[in-house]
């Protein structure tokens, strides 16, 4: 059996990213400030998916772009952070994140019962909204015994509202006059998938994107805890104590979170600056530029990989459930930021 190659899909994502960067450069300065190249990459990817003759050979490379390339970008962003910055952002975000996780899971459960959505689908939508989008949904589905179609429903709902967030949140942030810190906090706590958080945050600028990424990594780091709690509620203590549970919880700690923190440690002890002095470069700034380019390629892949037509099979009730859970979480996060403040000053 021939092993699938990544090249066609990666080249397509590169082409969309290049088109987005070129189109952004051609915009008038007033529009450049309001429409980022990342938003253009997602939009052009969505458009290309529907206009070009789609080939199965594109799929592996597109998946590589929005999974592996994005995670590499997040790891590289670690060179722009010190461990103290990450700790300060994470510590101040934990309470807000835990509150929002709890609310999202409760709202999804109660609203799901009211709408007649199955408990498993409600749980998956709640976990996707609360924690880490499609990664959390995929990790939780086997634990609660979700069927394949239930997993697909939850992923499709999460993808739809996360994609909408990429376009809507930056506009709302401008209308509300939010600072980079406030906007990054809002996005990092309220938008679902990691790719969507990175896209939405950086759509408003580097500072907002970096805060959003750090806050989202705090959510990602809590995924194992949430999976244990959800499994306990669905399957009882015996399933939580099983060996398979231990392996699944350990596997739920994202490797890119660990990589990001390791590079932050390297930067904290001064090794990044020292290496930059040796080669005559500002490696922290260079790393940030490389990360931005990788994010652009990854988000082109997100647009190319989004199959919105799969929503047709879901029906309206899970969509209403996903919308309601996302709105409650977003409004609560916004209210918290307005009254308590952002996670950075």
Task: Tell me what the structure shows.
The protein has one domain (7-339). The protein has helices at residues 7-26, 29-34, 37-51, 58-77, 83-115, 119-140, 148-175, 180-190, 194-202, 206-221, 223-235, 237-241, 243-251, 255-268, 271-279, 283-305, 316-339. With 345 residues, it is an all-alpha fold. The radius of gyration is 20 Å and the shape is globular.
Please outline the helices and strands:
Layout: H1 7-26, H2 29-34, H3 37-51, H4 58-77, H5 83-115, H6 119-140, H7 148-175, H8 180-190, H9 194-202, H10 206-221, H11 223-235, H12 237-241, H13 243-251, H14 255-268, H15 271-279, H16 283-305, H17 316-339
Helix and strand sequence: HHHHHHHHHHHHHHHHH
Unreliably modeled segments: 237-243
Question: Quick check: average pLDDT?
Answer: 83
Number of domains: 1
**What is the helix content?**
over 70%
Throw out a few tags for this protein:
345 residues; mainly alpha; 17 helices; globular
Task: Please summarize what this structure is.
The protein has 345 residues and is mainly alpha-helical. The protein has helices spanning 7-26, 29-34, 37-51, 58-77, 83-115, 119-140, 148-175, 180-190, 194-202, 206-221, 223-235, 237-241, 243-251, 255-268, 271-279, 283-305, 316-339.
């Amino acid at each position: 059996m021939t092993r699938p190659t990544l090249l066609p899909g990666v080249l397509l994502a590169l082409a969309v990213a290049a088109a987005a960067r070129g189109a952004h450069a051609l915009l008038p300065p007033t529009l450049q400030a309001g429409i980022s190249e990342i938003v253009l990459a997602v939009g052009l990817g969505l458009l290309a998916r529907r206009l070009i003759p789609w080939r199965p050979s594109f799929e592996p490379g597109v998946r590589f772009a929005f999974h592996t390339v994005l995670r590499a970008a997040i790891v590289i962003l670690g060179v722009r952070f010190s461990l103290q910055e990450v700790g300060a952002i994470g510590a101040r975000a934990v309470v807000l994140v835990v509150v929002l996780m709890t609310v999202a899971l409760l709202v999804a459960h109660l609203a799901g019962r009211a709408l007649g959505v199955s408990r498993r689908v409600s749980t998956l939508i709640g976990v996707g909204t609360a924690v880490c989008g499609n990664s959390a949904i995929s990790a939780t589905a086997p634990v609660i015994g979700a069927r394949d179609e239930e997993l697909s429903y939850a992923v499709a709902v999460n993808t739809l509202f996360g994609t909408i967030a990429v376009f809507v949140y930056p506009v709302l942030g401008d209308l509300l006059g939010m600072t980079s810190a406030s906007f990054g906090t809002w996005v990092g706590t309220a938008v679902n998938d990691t790719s969507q958080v990175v896209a939405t945050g950086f759509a408003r600028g580097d500072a907002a994107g970096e805060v959003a990424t750090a806050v989202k990594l705090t959510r990602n780091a809590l995924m194992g805890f949430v999976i244990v709690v959800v499994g306990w509620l669905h399957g009882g203590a015996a399933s939580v104590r099983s060996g398979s549970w231990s392996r699944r919880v350990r596997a739920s700690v994202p490797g890119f979170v660990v990589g990001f923190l390791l590079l932050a440690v390297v930067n904290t002890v001064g090794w990044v600056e020292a290496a930059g002095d040796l080669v005559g470069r500002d490696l922290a700034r260079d790393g940030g530029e490389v990360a931005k380019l990788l994010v652009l390629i990854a988000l082109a892949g997100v647009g190319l990989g989004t199959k919105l037509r799969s929503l047709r099979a879901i029906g309206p009730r899970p969509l209403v459930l996903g919308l309601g859970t996302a709105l409650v979480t977003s409004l609560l996060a916004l209210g918290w930021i307005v009254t308590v403040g952002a996670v950075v000053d």
